[in-house]
Amino acid sequence: MGNYTDYTATGMDEEDALFLAERDRVDTPPAPTDAPTPGFSRFLVEIDGSAEEYTERLRSLLGAALDRAVAAMDLDHLDDPDSLELDLTVRHVPEWFAALCTHSGTEQPAPDFTRAGAARFTAAGHGSGWRLSGWLERFDWDSTFRTWEWWDITRTDERTLSIWVNAHGEDFFACDDLRWAAYTSGAVKVTGPVLVDAAEWRAQRGRAGSGWPPAAAPGSLSAHGRIGEP
After folding, report:
1. 154 φ, ψ to 5°?
2. How many other CB atoms sit within 10 Å of the CB of residue 219?
3. Euclidean distance between CA atoms 149 and 196, whole angstroms
4. What is the pLDDT of residues 84-102, one digit of tens each?
5. Closest by Cα among 59, 71, 73, 61 to 12
6. How far apart are CA 77 and CA 91, in angstroms?
7. Phi/psi of residue 155, nearest 5 degrees
């Protein structure tokens, strides 16, 4: 299970179904045939290093945020919520992100890649960044502030990745929460969003195939861990 049709077939509210499908797409890229919108908003991400490592960091971060949101969802409107057998495991927020965003003075110093990314976020004119609690709140299942849905990440060339989101046909929307995640995961530069025809996403996803991004290995950054607070 993991696409919009599967979840709505259970009788779930449309918004809840979309939320669960979004969480699934972080870990399992959608097939090239899955595009419910004629266009996606795309961000181009320049990196200096391994595309696999960068992608794993970003997926681990977004996966942890969406895990928390899914675990807090209210499914009492369903006749038998337990029959869905939803995975309610909550991954811990990656230590590198928590160390950067908590600012309590007691954590281990954040690693170079995330501190450099935060500095680039600020230098690009997007502000001083986010506290951990405020950033996580943007992903609450009942939040009205986030108007984009994660869709996919593909490799455009050796130094550039494309982040695709469904912003419902908009090319201007509140997305500094996503920029913050993209930069602090190690981006050198993030440009966009630009509204792009879904055919372009299909072409990149088709070239990448099911092997990109690589599946998370047990014990890796985006593998599931125990339920707990970050």
Report:
1. -130, 160
2. 7
3. 15
4. 666 667 889 999 999 999 8
5. 73
6. 26
7. -95, 120
- How much is the pLDDT for 13? 74
Q: Which amino acid is at 21?
A: A
Residue 214, classified by CB atoms within 10 Å of its CB into exposed (0-12), middle (13-18) or buried (19+), is exposed
CA contacts within 13 A on the Cβ side of 224 = 13
- pLDDT recorded at residue 208: 72
Is residue 64 scored above 90 in pLDDT?
yes
Residue 166 has pLDDT above 90, yes or no: yes
Query: Do residues 150 and 21 lie in contact, with contact meaning Cβ atoms separated by under 8 Å?
Result: no
Best CA proximity match to 66, nearest among 24, 35, 11, 8 = 24
Cα 66 to Cα 141: distance, rounded to the nearest angstrom: 8
pTM for this entry: 0.85
The two structure tokens encoding residue 36: 């419910």
- The helix-helix angle for 176-184 and 51-71 (nearest 10°) equals 130
Helix, strand, coil share (%) of the chain residues, nearest 5: 40, 15, 45
Nearest to 61 by CA among 85, 29, 96, 32: 96
